[in-house]
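Backbones bend. Our protein:
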Amino acid sequence: MATDYNPYCKYTRVWIPDPSEVWKAAEIIRDFKEGEPELLLRLEDDTTLAYPVGPKGKPLPFLRNPDILVGENDLTVLSYLHEPAVLHNLRVRFLEPNHIYTYCGIVLVAINPYDQLHIYGEEVIRAYSGQNMGDMDPHIFAVAEEAYKQMGR
């Protein structure tokens, strides 16, 4: 007997749009079946919400990444790569001291901290010198080192 895979089952974590926070984390508290008019969710503050879906409601919400992937330094390793997952991962990294850089494959994503950071001195340049991109935390010096190596080739 074949069963259809349903990612929207009890305990699945999702992202729902929110007018003030942009995206809000929630967990499904009752299995969802195709055609039902709503998902029953529990928000992080333990309130429950009947989230309308389908033709008269909203599309099914985005699925959340497992906790083990939250804060990864390369967005391409995320299980789900969509707007709320990217924004959440960047936020988690940015809240760590001096983690303003994140990779997305070979692209470096930078968030302006609007503050002076001590991540550009001679000792940091030496630390990234000779290293392969991805061996250390994402940084503009890693990209520069990779470009320099490629020019030499």
Summary: The chain has two domains: 13-63, 67-152. Residues 83-95 form the longest helix (13 residues). The mean pLDDT is 94.
